[in-house]
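pinging the channel bc i need a second pair of eyes. not urgent but kinda urgent?? the chain im working w is below, pasted from the shared doc
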Amino acid sequence: MDIFTNTTFPKCLAALNLILVALIAGAASTLYISSIPIIKLGRSHSSKVMLKQFRLLVVLGGRYLQTGSRIWAASMAILTWLLYVHQDEVLSGRGRYSAAALFIGAQAGWYEIVYVFPTNDRLMEMEVELLKSDDAEADQKIRKEVLL
């Protein structure tokens, strides 16, 4: 337990959290800045092309962003607890800032669960429907919903 009571471990964990947030923000920005415009360029093509490109975006986001966010939340919760119970008054006082950061960061979690994941699931369903359909006009029928 001595490793948790010295000041080095909480400081290293705080630095790790900062680096992790920077990596998550960088990955999210890269996906948004580069991938979304590419998908929007596909408007002149079929919905099938746009949905296929979107599938890659969902897979990458799920693999890196969702995993990174969960690791960050766990690490931040541990850091908050370590700072809260720390013997040094200065470090112990910083626990509330860590708790505030955890609370603010957690707001993205419920937003993703309520809005982002259902949208992703619906777009994946539309791709499957489009691939199974023999209707020549299926692409045009589904296109309005894809472009929303």
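so The CA atoms of residues 83 and 95 lie 5 Å apart. and The chain is about 90% helix and 0% strand. — does that match what u expected or am i reading it wrong
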